[in-house]
Every structure is written in C-alpha cells, then in structure tokens.
Amino acid sequence: MKNQDFPTFYLNSIAGRPAICMGIIMKKIIRWFRRLFPRFQTKLLIAFLLCTVIPLGIISFVSYSVSRSIAWDKTMDASILAGDQLHVQLSARIRQAENVADALQFKMYTLESANEQKLSTYMDTITQLRNDISLYLSTFDIYQICVFLKDENFGSNEGLYFYPLSRLDLLGVSRQDLESLGASSLWLYRLQIETPFILSSNKKTDSIICSRALFNQGSGQLDYAYFILMDTAEFSNMLTTAFANTDTCGYLAMPDGTVIASSDPALYSRKLSPDLMQRLSDCKTPYFFYEGSYIHAAVLDNGWYQITDIPKSYVTGSTVVLLRTILIALLSALSVTVLVILLISRNLSVRIHTLSEAMEAFRLNPNLPSYEPLTVPKPDDPSLYDEIDMLGLTFEQMQAAIQNNLKSILELSLTEERLKYQLLQSQINPHFLYNILGSVKTCQSLGKLDVADRMISDLTRFYRLTLHKSNDLILLRDELEIATLYLNMEKLCHNNNLDWEIRLESGIENFLICKFTLQPFLENCILHGISAQTPNIRIQISAVYGDDTVIIKISDNGAGIPAEKLKELRQSLKSRTVNYEKHFGVCNVNTRISSEHYGSGHIEIESIPYKYTCIRIEFAQMEGDQIIGLPERIEN
Description:
Blueprint: H1 6-16, H2 22-36, H3 39-114, H4 119-139, E1 144-149, E2 162-164, H5 175-178, E3 186-194, E4 204-216, E5 221-231, H6 232-242, E6 249-253, E7 259-262, H7 274-282, E8 288-290, E9 293-299, E10 305-311, H8 312-316, H9 320-361, H10 387-445, H11 449-468, E11 473-475, H12 476-493, E12 498-504, E13 512-514, H13 519-529, E14 537-545, E15 549-556, H14 563-575, H15 584-593, E16 602-608, E17 612-620
Parallel strand pairs: 1-2, 12-14
Antiparallel strand pairs: 1-5, 3-4, 4-5, 6-7, 6-10, 8-9, 9-10, 11-13, 14-15, 15-17, 16-17
C-alpha cells in the first residue's frame, strides 16, 4: 500500500468500496500529497495557487458582479418603467372618470333646480342629461352611468340610466355609504353588477365604480346619487398588455387588500396579506423584497394601489449563462496554473528545505559559547548568490552574533531590573522623610518640644533599622517593626487619637516582603482618614495565608476615599504607573511589588466614605533564604 502510487490506490479504493466516505478519500489525498512533496513545496504550491486563484477569483467575482448588476438593473428598470408607464395610463383613466363625474355634478345641480319649475322644463332638462350621458359613454368608453333620483321624481324608474334611490342595492350601496361624501368621490369595487340587457347580453359584470351623491343637510335625506361604472376587464387588459412576454405580474388592489384587476386571472378578487399591505403603506423606496419577489407599488389618484410583482427568479435568470461561462474560464486557467507552479516550485523548495534543516538544528542552550555554527551549502562563486543563498549566509553570521550578544543582553536585563527597583526605593525614602520632618517642624512651632524630641529619637531608630536591613526584600517581621515605629511617631503628632492593632497568622512573619511596603498606606490612612467627622482613627493590620501567597490587609474607620478619586486610583494601580503628583506612595509600592523578582504582587482598594477603607496587598510567598539570590544594593 505504501509503495502504490496515488491514482492506482484511488481507483482500487473506489472499485473495492464504492460507498466509501468522501471525508476519508480527502484525507488520503492530503496524505498522498504530503508524501509526494516536501512540506515547504506544499505550502509554496498553496501560496502560488492562492496568489493565482485569489486574483482570478476577484476578477471573476467582479466581472460577474458587474455583469449581474447590469443585467439585474436592466431587468428591474425595465419592469419598473413598464409599471410607471402603466401607472400613468391608469391614473389618466381614473382622472377621466373623475372629470366625467365633475361634468355630471353640474348637470345634476341643473336637474335638481328644474324639479321645482314646470314639468316641461324638467322634461327638457332630464332629456338633455340623458343625451349627455350617452355622449359620455361613447366618448370616454365608459361601461355604464347610473343616476339615482328621489322615488317621486319623474323619470326615476326609467331603467336605463335613471333609477329610484330606493334601489341603491342594485349596486350594493347603502345610503350610509354616501351621506358623508360631500364633493369628493367614493370608489367602489362590486362583483356581478346587473345592467340592462340592451347594454350587455351577459347582464352581470364585475365593475369599478366612481360614486357621487348630494346629501341634503336640512332634510337629512339624499337628493340624488350617480355612479360611473367601468369594467374591471378593461384594467386587467391594460395590465396584461403592459407585462406581456415577461414573468412580471401587475395588479390593482384596494386599501383593504382586495385585488380588483390583474394580469394573472388567478388573483381576481383575492385578498392580499395584512403584512404586505402594511409594507406597502410604510415603503419609502422604489421597491422592496417580499416572499421571493420584488414589489414595486404606486398609489393611484383614487387611493388604490397599482402593484408590480417582479419574481426574483425572473431577475436572476439572465445571469445563469454568464456565471457558467466565467466558471469554465476560471477552471481552465486554474488547471494550467497548477502545472506551471509544480515545475517551478520543485527546484526552489529543495534549497529552502536544506536551509530550514540548518535553522532547526540551531537551538538556544546554556552552552552557546561552545556551540559549533552550522553552514548552509552555497555556490563557490559569490556573484552567483541569489536571495536564498544570501539568506543562508546571513543565518551563519546571525548565529555568531547571537552567541556573542546573548550573554550581554541577559546581563543588561538583570542590571536594568535592579536599577529600576533601586530607583523606586530611593524615591520613597525622601518622600517619607519630608513628611516626618514636616510633622517635627509643626510640633516645634506649637511649642511641643518634648514631642518633637521623641519624634526625632523614633526617627533615628527608624532609619537605623531600615539602613541596617540593606536588602531590597526583608522579613515581614522587620517590615511590621518599621511600621510600628512610624505609627508611634504619628501618634505623638495627633494627641493620641490614633490607635492600631496587628494580627498575624502563625509563622507568616518569616516570609519576605519589599521594604517600605506598609508605610505609604499607613501614612495615607492617617493623613486622609482623620477629619472633622472622624477625629479618632483606628487602623487594623492583618497578614494571612493565601494560595501560595501572603495577603496583607490594612483597614481604617476614617474619612474614606471619594468615588471619583477611588476610580482614578484603581486605574493607576491597574496600569502600574507612578504619578509624581498624585498617589505617589501607593503607586510606587504597587510598581515595586508587581515585579516577578519581588513577588508578582498586586493591590486592591475598597472604600466607603466615612465608613471604612480597606487595602488588600497580595504577593507570592518568598522564603528567607531567597535573600541570597537578590540583587545587592548599590552603596554610595
């Protein structure tokens, strides 16, 4: 199996197991390629393919997208243009009916006035109205005009153009529908309207009706009403003609969603969904997509919707041939490219593979000074070097440079870390000394010379102890002794309104801690904690074990830290920066203990004004014997 070439193996696999999983076949293809080509050549082949396929793909995609967009726009524009042209025709037809209604309005006023005159005058007027109606029907190709008069009026039972108001049910209309019309028209859609036999042998026709009426406010009765009927088939024919030889469908719909005319007979009298009607009323764009179709809608002069339904399949159908052509061209170009890349990458990958083996053999180790640098084969004549040969030469030189510089870099890194720590340590001492000397000066100014003397004595002991401990890390026991001396000095300055308590878990005082860690926090407790509302302050210091860490908590019942200042302080702690104008002492300690050489510690602060403030310091447990391995202090 191992010596069998891939085509034979593949054919045998298919012949032997026709139902083999496609995933297994792909894995075998990948393994065969990895055996046939070195790893770099495979990657190089993939890179070349990507560099070829991506541009070809982009060009093909752009070409297809542009062509598709043009075809799509052309199809959509043609359908929308046909719909807009149809909208002009339909609106013109509706305005034509409105114009006829306006003309009849004047005639009806004349007829109503003649009703109060002589019968001969009324007969002449109604005869003239009948002639005008006949003229309108023939001139404007209107299906029928029906005039409804009061039952007692002469000619109301004529039966061709004139009917009594009591027979409004012939058109499916009630008096209530007409009472609030005023001078405007009411557009109706009625099925199977029966008309005189002389007008239609079919007698019943679906009609679109333009209605007008005069309601007498004084008597509270209808004086007359007239209706202009148009056959819905006329509008359906207009829709069918506009969208002939296309898959586009056009239809007219009332505001309630009833389809009154359509180029598709299956849609007659159907109700459109409320969701579609809502989309039509809310639409602010030329068209929108709905259930597989693009909908273009326009509102006619009577408030009805003229809708153009453009199926998505009709819009995208013109791009299928274009897509097939682009795919064939792309696959052909890709096949030729693969063959060329295989020939080029084979020679190039051999030298890269040799160089990669030389680099892989080079490792950082403790015996770098005695490490024998590797060489990469190159042509004898330097003028024949190409980029890969120059890379091999540079690698050889780099090995020697790394061997010479690595030790210097490591030593400089340690020196830099030591100097950074000592700089921070040197900054905290003058800060503390300045504050204490200020307190001594205050006591002298107030005549408290005995207090000042005791503070100077304590300060002497304080510095004797701190200078005696020359290491950067000291025992927690010694740090607490330094903190106690400081609290004693502060207590002398504050009339004994300062109290403290120290609680330790057994043996924890033997772990190491950065020198001068606690004093800045104790100073802040006193300086910012004592106020008019909190004149007496009590400080509690505790040290407990964590998970391989030491946890120190310093809490007080002082004035606390305002919310904005607390947020600012937490941000400074998180960023581990030292601001020489704000929060210097706290941030100085945070920066020192965060070093991996000094416990990788961190500080958390919680405070509620005038209730409590709690500082939590946590750092890794460091044994006393670790002092030996720490950088020594540089003496003046």
